[in-house]
Specification:
By secondary structure, this protein is mainly beta. It contains no helices and five strands. Helices cover 0% and strands 54% of the residues. Strand 2 and strand 3 form a beta hairpin. It is globular, with a radius of gyration of 10 Å.
C-alpha cells in the first residue's frame, strides 16, 4: 500500500484524501483515530511512499 507521509505539528501523518479545495484529510501514524482536516500549505511532505 502506497501512502504519502507528511509532517504536521511535529508529528508524522498519512494522507487519507486530498480535496480539490486544497484541504487534506490526514491520519496520525501512531494514533489512527487522530484524523485532521488541514490545508496543504500547513503540512510538509516527508516521503512519497510508506
Amino acid at each position: 500500500m502506497n501512502s504519502e507521509v507528511v509532517l504536521y505539528e511535529g508529528k508524522l501523518y498519512m494522507v487519507i484524501y486530498k480535496y480539490s479545495s486544497g484541504y487534506w484529510e490526514i491520519r496520525e501514524k501512531e494514533n489512527r483515530f487522530n484524523i485532521q482536516l488541514v490545508h496543504e500549505s500547513e503540512v510538509q511532505k516527508v516521503s512519497k511512499t510508506l
